[in-house]
Amino acid sequence: MMRKSGTPNVVVILVDTTRADRLSCYGHVRQTTPHLDALARESMVYTQAISPGAWTPPSHASIFTGTYGSRHGVDRTHPYLDTPMTTLSEYLRGRGYRTYGISSNYWISSATCYDRGFDVFYQSWQLLQASVNPALDRQRRRDPSYTPPPAPIGERFRGAVNRVDAAFWRTCCSPFMAVDMGAGRVNRVVRRWMRQWAKRDQPFFAFIHYLEPHLPYRPPARFLRRYLSEREAKRAETVNQHALKYIGGRVTVGADDMELLGRLYDAEISYTDECIGELVDGLRTSGLLDDTVLVVTSDHGENLGEHGLMDHMFSVHEPIVRVPLVVRFPGGTPRGQDAGVVQTLDIFPTVVATLDDEGAAVTEQFQGAPLPPLGPRREFAVTELNQVQPPIETVARRYPEFDWRVYDRSLCALRTATHKYVQGSDGREELYALDTDPGETHDLSATDPARTAELRGRLASWRASFTPAASNGAAPELDAEIRRRLHDLGYIED
Question: What is the residue range of 247's domain?
């Protein structure tokens, strides 16, 4: 039923670090996502959705702005979403929406400006929300004469409680817990919001972020049992989950152990799928679903041993860049599968097109376009890895026995329906025929020079089509608590 305002709600569910080929609705051999499979049957499923970025901050910024990383300027040395461009949440709030956001990734936080445009922004890793007005604080800090006042007693209390809470879950729980407090907290918060949405005659936008498929893989025990026997689960507790130790050759992960890691990853996806199903059921029961644009996607994928890599670093291969993208439009139509190349930065333009806002000034900033069938098919997709994360000099200092210079380069990939061209800042080029070599194991750049030159020219024309973001300089130091948590996730090496 359409709300009195005649304007559909918008919900974007983002499952961090999720590669498309591990979802059963994308052909995985295990039934990892029965709830998403059911949603997919009444949605548009984009089978060749490509992320414009290879890791969290630039990929999220592309979704929020409808632009590529080179244009919005978010990256390792500047992880802040402080571009003057309009974000999705700001656009919808300007259209009269009530806006809600919840994040489970420490990069996507009020500290990094991702709370822009949200009336309510919740950080799921905090038991008590500890920022009173982070946007105002950031604005004041730009004034060199401004000296921030001491934190109020209540703020210091909340910060202390959050640190104790984080330490408890990090040190006092088994690797595979009976309850996962990440997605569980997310759903508890969203259920409270949902009760408000059902009562108000006002459209809402919700950005809902789950972290579970991210390293380290620690699925709740009941999901672990779906994929591993008791003996395998015991062994899985000892399998290396430190990506840099594996990539650098300090530890060996055999095929059997990599298979165990893959099953842990699948268990994390299955748990998140159940949480998504719970929220979809809540929207349906509340009578909100048919009046909502519902998007399920990811920021990037994950390497599970392919090309000698783990985690999501140093690579623009398919396990990293091909992500799920399922869009349920109001009323469940249009629906079906689309095998054309699309990108997650097309989500924002799709929302604008769904609202039939032809006069929206925000469209001038877009490098994306409405998803089919609302818009034309793309000729190609682009993925950028402009700054290696973590920095090579830091990794080399920690693990000097490996020559990390092979990864010390930026990467840009141009992907068509059949081929992928990869260009490195060191001058190296790669070309893969994805229709016959989906694992990207045979580089054709030397044996097919004509196609290599063609795609090189397309990439050059794409780069010339816009002005890159001006350099923002080095990022201000993140606070100690955020740095510690990013270290725990493997983003920061001391």
Answer: 9-131+162-379
